[in-house]
């Protein structure tokens, strides 16, 4: 498999996500409910009983770079995101477990900021979040295969960049691992453990994903 530098992979990831996001926006979002008049804005990001979005190592780095660059955040607000992530990991018991399904772990997303919304909306949004909206009719929803295709491309970019040294994990957990103020020891330890796996990373993650895909974020609004 052709190897990629992290910088090249990040650029490809951003292009792929942007194409996916504009496809959803043009072809499906017109039929979705308008988030600007939602009576419970952001509940789809903060419902700790339901949100189980997982991301990969490369996406975590993309989120960190986006948080670093966005002019909407000063240093305190940026640090607050990582603090919320750490609190979410503790509060919801998020773990890199190998026994059991990490997709059973749910949390309130630390990337949601009241009044602003998703802090990585434009440049680093996870695929389930791009796909998500509230629809009144099932038949108007984007097919889940679109999300899976995007996620498969994300997996390939991770493999080309990190080999087997990555995994799908809950977003807050990944944010603590790539926190610019972390010493990197935990990520290095996990990367070694993942790298030693004697199997392609995607096999396992795809199996996890198949179970999770139908429950990543609430989608349908009741009439
Ligand atoms: S996706 Fe649905 S729940 Fe979330 S803000 Fe929009 S309308 Fe509200
Ligand atoms: S990444 Fe953004 S859209 Fe997705 S759950 Fe978090 S705040 Fe919501």
Number of strands: 4
Instruction: Catalogue the ligands.
Output: iron/sulfur cluster
Overall mean pLDDT: 89
Number of domains: 1
Distance between the termini: 48 Å
Order of strands in the sheet with the most strands?
Answer: 1-4
The share of residues in extended strands comes to under 5%
Q: Number of helical segments?
A: 9
Q: Low-confidence segments, ≥5 residues, pLDDT <50?
A: 201-215, 218-223
Estimate the helix proportion, in percent: 40-55%
Helix-strand pattern: HHEHHEEHHEHHH
Q: What does the radius of gyration come to?
A: 17 Å
**Major β-sheet, in short?**
2 strands, antiparallel
Question: Could you explain the architecture of this structure?
Answer:
With 223 residues, this protein is mainly alpha-helical. It has one domain (6-93, 101-215). 50% of the residues lie in helices and 4% in strands. The protein has helices at 6-27, 43-46, 57-69, 75-91, 127-131, 144-162, 171-178, 185-195, 201-212; strands at 54-55, 112-113, 117-118, 169-170. The strands form two sheets. A two-stranded antiparallel sheet has the order 1-4. Strands 2-3 form a two-stranded antiparallel ribbon. A hairpin with a 3-residue loop joins strand 2 (112-113) and strand 3 (117-118). Helix 4 packs across helix 7. Bound molecules: iron/sulfur cluster (SF4) (2 copies). One iron/sulfur cluster binds next to loops. The site of one iron/sulfur cluster has 11 residues, from loops.
């Amino acid at each position: 498999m052709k190897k990629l530098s992290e910088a090249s992979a990040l650029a490809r990831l951003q292009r792929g996500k942007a194409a996916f996001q504009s496809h959803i926006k043009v072809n499906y979002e017109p039929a979705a409910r308008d988030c600007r008049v939602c009576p419970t804005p952001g509940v789809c990001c903060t419902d700790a009983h339901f949100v189980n979005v997982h991301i990969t190592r490369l996406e975590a780095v993309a989120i960190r770079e986006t948080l670093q660059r966005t002019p909407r955040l000063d240093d305190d607000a940026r640090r607050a995101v990582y603090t919320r992530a750490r609190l979410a990991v503790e509060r919801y018991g998020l773990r890199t477990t190998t026994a059991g399904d990490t997709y059973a772990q749910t949390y309130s997303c630390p990337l949601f900021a009241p009044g602003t919304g998703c802090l990585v909306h434009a440049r680093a949004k996870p695929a389930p979040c791009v796909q998500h909206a509230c629809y009144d009719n099932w038949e108007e929803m984007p097919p889940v295969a679109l999300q899976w295709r995007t996620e498969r491309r994300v997996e390939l970019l991770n493999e080309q960049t990190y080999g087997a040294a990555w995994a799908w994990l809950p977003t807050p957990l990944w944010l603590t691992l790539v926190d610019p103020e972390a010493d990197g020891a935990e990520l290095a330890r996990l990367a070694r453990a993942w790298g030693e796996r004697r199997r392609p990373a995607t096999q396992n993650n795809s199996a996890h994903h198949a179970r999770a895909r139908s429950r990543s974020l609430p989608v349908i609004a009741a009439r």
